[in-house]
Amino acid sequence: MMSGDEVPGRMPGELDMQAPAAIALSGISKSFGAVQANRDIDLLVEEGTIHGIVGENGAGKSTLMSILYGFYEADSGDIFVRGEKRKITSPDDAIKAGIGMVHQHFMLVDNFTVLENVILGAEGGTLLKAGVSRARAELKRLEREYELQVDPDAVVGDLPVGLQQRVEILKALFRGADTLILDEPTGVLTPSEADHLFRILRQLKSQGKTVILITHKLREIMAITDNVSIMRRGEIVATLETAETTPEQLAELMVGRHVLLRVEKGEAAPGAPLLTVTNLSVVDGNGVARVSDVSFEVRAGEIVGIAGVSGNGQSELLEALSGIRPATSGEIRLADGEDLARRADPAMRRRSKLAHVPEDRHRMGLVMGFEENENAILGYHRDKAYGRGVFLDRSAIEAEAREKMQQYDIRPPDPRLKTANFSGGNQQKIVLAREMERDPDVLLVGQPTRGVDIGAIEFIHHQLVAMRDAGKAILLVSVELDEIRALSDRILVMFSGKIVGERGPQASEGELGLMMAGVTPEEGEGESAEEAQAEGEMGRASAAEPKA
Amino acid sequence: MDLTTIVLILDSSVRLATPLLLACLAGLYSERSGIFDIGLEGKMLAGAFFAAAAAYWTGSAWLGLLAAIAASIVLALVHGFASITQRGNQIVSGVAINFLAAGMTALLGQAWFSQGGRTPQLGADARFGAITLPGAEALRDVPVVGEIYYELISGHNLIVYVAFLMVPLTWWVLFRTRFGLRLRAVGQNPAAVDTAGVSVPFLRYRAVVICGILTGIAGAYLAIAQSAGFIVNMSAGKGYIALAALIFAKWRPWPAMGACFLFGFLDAVSIRLQGANVPVIGEVPVQFMQALPYILTVILLAGFIGRAVPPKAGGIPYVKER
């Protein structure tokens, strides 16, 4: 087992001996009620390095960084910044200590301009005028130095997420941050945007800044960090030099047991089409076309993946297919051949053996205040097995819920527990168990592993492949390109409401990334052998960076 | 209709719009900071009562005004405590304040003055009187311009001028100062303000106190400027109309002035038309004319303003996310 003392460097006690670390945490603990989020954490971040922190959801990464940024106060422990002990009890203290943070959910005011967002809290005087012109000059300088191009007068809400993230970085640098914390920064980015972000981070490092990168994507850790700390259940279980570790080792340290990073599956044996979509278009309530003229089919025994950056019409497509939203034009046919496009009736779709795992379990998949067993029958609650007339048969419902919980290893196995008290991965398994155990012919799955631990991801992927092998048609929508590539037998790429191309599972990340950004490469070269081996490093094929 | 009639109606519109405008701007500060305030009505009513009581006892309009502001700030802080510190429901807190003010003013009025909840009639010193602007007398006889200046611009009491000056001042504070930037930000995304190292509660408390000051002035206007004493429930729904005007103005100061003036104008017209003979219809029932501003409010709000998007974080208590 690796441990902290393999770090090249020193433990906090000997800080004064050599050049002090940019950040040193010593004995940090934090509890929320009965939950111990951080337990006696020691961490050293060397100045001028990129330091990765990996761990599963709920391992305590974000809590630890929130403590460093003064958002929460630690119950015990000390923070040293460049060897100097600091008391950080508010973001203001952190900013003064030269720490900046880019949060996972951006802390931006949508209807403000870039400039207004940057100066907020650092206006430099009672009146805005002087601060604004100073900020404008400063932004110019930062833009030159770090490839942080962004129009200072643009309204932030109109900018794509990649640029919004740059605004967040600018905010931190404008406040004079020497150490920049990024919390899951690539979750919302296209591969080429992520590439640009990493160039920026390398640039920051070359200028002597320190970067702390929180992520659950092992590939990013391997590609960009110098050192990596692994967290599990609130503790740092190891800190390693990135060059001397492997993704497999990291995964094992994160989960505490051996994990298969690859999905093992055989060749697909597709049969007859079970879901046929023809020229489907969806216009939303504001008159904006979300899905334009989309046609495809999903056959029995195959997984069709839809890749795309979030917000390119995938959600609306899923909603139209599952009957939550009427299609504006086009046709949706199941095996029986009847066109359902205009009949927005989710209950009817369920009866026609089409099941739907919604993208957002909190908003659509579950009622968080319900007991687990109530969520386990949601949408199927009229089924005869669950009661008579207007009455529910609680014991039958609970017995079935208990059985499913065992089958899907949902923990804790208590059907009476409130759904909100389950972890993200277990909540997702509640939804999956409900939809998959109904033995549907067609399964629509949106973001099956969003916010789910590696261990649970392995399980969920395995279940999906098993359903495919049982001859079901599966449509998988995910913003995780790795997941799409690992599971799909065919990959459709959506951009701006249209399907811009179809590729096989061997398509390279770079190629798919370009398509996701709306750049369609030449048809037909998608499955060449040379691209199949373009693994490992982040999508290098981003020479044709989409316009900013 | 001749010029004199028009000028008189407009003049009366200004007087009727003043309390709406003050309350509307009060609501603007509070709601821009993310604290919905349905309690404008109650704060105005409490302000009116304490203005009249203090002015009666001391004989000073200025002390009356101070008492109004103090009373209104106290209620504003109650609302602030409930919705900022205790993170309670802002609508419930606002409604409670309205009930509290309505009951308390009637009760104290009866206990202190024994005139059925009224305060005694105030003398001239205990009220804000009309101010004649320089040159108004001299210009009085100049056609059109003189008439407009003398009747419409000049001759109002101090609070009317304060209310209208608050409009550019509010605009300036909101869009040209650090406080304004932070105020607008905290109503949209308090987490952004928090992570920028600025205290969300302190900002919101300041906004709520400003709201209290302005509703206090509005209340004082009702009791010791427009009238000569307090009458039970004298705010008569003006706090709600001010809220409607605020939505109508989409939380912006200049349109707020426009909206309040429009509501004031409708009120003025309805008073003017009472008992008047309208062709075809004949004599218009008083009740209909009195209802007219409210009917138009509903119509305007329902269909004629487009989408009014309130400050995004409005009404939602700020809790640091876990």
UniProtKB/TrEMBL annotation, chain A:
A molecular function GO annotation: ATP binding
Location within or outside the cell: Cell membrane
Stretches with biased composition (Acidic residues): 522-534
SMART domains, A to Z: AAA
Domain called ABC transporter: residue spans: 23-258, 275-521
Keyword terms of this UniProt record: ATP-binding, Cell membrane, Membrane, Nucleotide-binding, Repeat, Sugar transport, Translocase, Transport
Annotated region (Disordered), positions in chain: 520-548
Membrane topology: Peripheral membrane protein
Translocase is among the record's keywords: yes
Main location: membrane
GO CC annotations on file: plasma membrane
Family matches, as InterPro entries: AAA+_ATPase, ABC_carbohydrate_import_ATPase, ABC_transporter-like_ATP-bd, ABC_transporter-like_CS, P-loop_NTPase
Family as reported in the entry's similarity comment: Belongs to the ABC transporter superfamily.
Protein name (Swiss-Prot/TrEMBL): Simple sugar transport system ATP-binding protein
Organism: Afifella marina DSM 2698
Automatic annotation (TrEMBL), chain B:
Organism superkingdom: Bacteria
Pfam families membership: BPD_transp_2 (PF02653)
Cell location: Cell membrane
Gene Ontology molecular function: any one: transmembrane transporter activity
Membrane topology: Multi-pass membrane protein
Transmembrane segments: 6-28, 40-57, 91-113, 158-175, 205-224, 230-249, 254-271, 291-310
Record keywords: Cell membrane, Membrane, Sugar transport, Transmembrane, Transmembrane helix, Transport
Gene Ontology CC, one term: plasma membrane
Protein name in the entry: Simple sugar transport system permease protein
